[in-house]
Design goal:
Helix content is 26%, strand content 26%. The protein has a 6-stranded mixed sheet. Strand 9, helix 3 and strand 10 form a beta-alpha-beta unit.
Length: 282
């Protein structure tokens, strides 16, 4: 497959899990109707972004992966013939919780999951209260649209995982987000294009949008949307998404650019892993 049509969903919190899941089913249908072959939702798509507070009641959003929400979207993926990346709150067992993304193939098969490795704990991102660090490595999934990897939000600040996904053969890496204005604005513009160019693959970045005031009142933050896709040369594929409104972005990815970028630059040839030993010392 030379060209892949990808969709990214950025949206606002509806106020309850069932309506949020139903909204994403409709977004997937909209994407498929526009010819999308793969769709990725935003971080923790089935709930609010509860990391802005520390409240044990949000543990109730966690479920098994695969579990009821994944099974529901497996059926939809098979119906629409579309690959899905589903960022969820995962409960492995009571008290063992992860920030996870499930990958479902276009025939509805569950292919596996990625668990977010790097867990922030700073103002309005109190994630260590909710998640253990991921422990499943950096898997790459063979899908109907090619080899797909996942990195989640705060992970993007760490170049090692980007490179691990490239070495494992990723062609498209999805990085679902819940990012707000502040320190992240400049990095939002820099990091994903840099990761794409350094590793020679596509990076697709959906982000939440709007304020979840109905959930958090005055403590709510303003997620800035601006979802986008960059190619293996670090160029934006089309315009970025809205900074304020829900949107389904549709972008065509020319996978032949992967070979071109890697042939032109030869970063994989010129790597020196023998000299990087100190980088992985704790």
């Amino acid at each position: 497959m030379t060209t892949v049509r990808a969709a990214l969903v950025q949206t606002t919190w509806t106020g309850d899990k069932e309506s949020m899941v139903a909204a994403h089913e409709e977004y997937a249908r909209q994407a498929a109707a526009q010819g999308a072959q793969v769709v990725c939702f935003q971080e923790l798509f089935h709930g609010p972004y509860f990391g802005i507070t520390q409240d044990a009641r949000y543990y109730d959003y966690a479920e098994s992966v695969p579990g009821p929400t994944v099974v529901r979207f497996q059926a939809l993926a098979a119906e629409l013939g579309i690959v899905m990346v589903l960022p969820l709150y995962e409960e492995e067992q009571p008290g063992v919780l992860y920030n996870t993304a499930a990958v479902v193939d276009a025939d509805g098969r569950y292919l596996g999951k990625y668990r977010k490795h790097h867990i922030p704990h700073v103002e309005k991102f109190w994630e260590k209260f909710y998640f253990r660090p991921g422990n499943l490595g950096y898997p790459v999934f063979e899908t109907a649209v090619g080899r797909v990897g996942v990195y989640i939000c705060y992970d993007r600040h760490f170049p090692e995982g980007w490179r691990a996904l490239g070495l494992a053969g990723a062609e498209i890496v999805f990085n679902p987000n819940a990012s707000k204005p502040g320190l992240s604005n400049r990095l939002w513009e820099l990091e994903q294009p840099t990761a794409a160019a350094a590793n020679g693959y596509f990076v697709a970045v959906p982000n939440r949008v709007g304020r979840e005031t109905g959930e958090f009142g005055d403590d709510a933050v303003e997620f800035y949307g601006s979802s986008y896709v960059v190619d293996p040369q670090g160029n934006f594929v089309g315009a970025k998404g809205s900074t304020s409104a829900p949107e389904v972005l549709i972008r065509d990815l020319d996978l032949s650019l992967i070979r071109k970028a890697r042939t032109d630059w030869q970063f994989y040839r010129d790597r020196r892993p023998d000299s990087y030993v100190d980088l992985v010392r704790p």
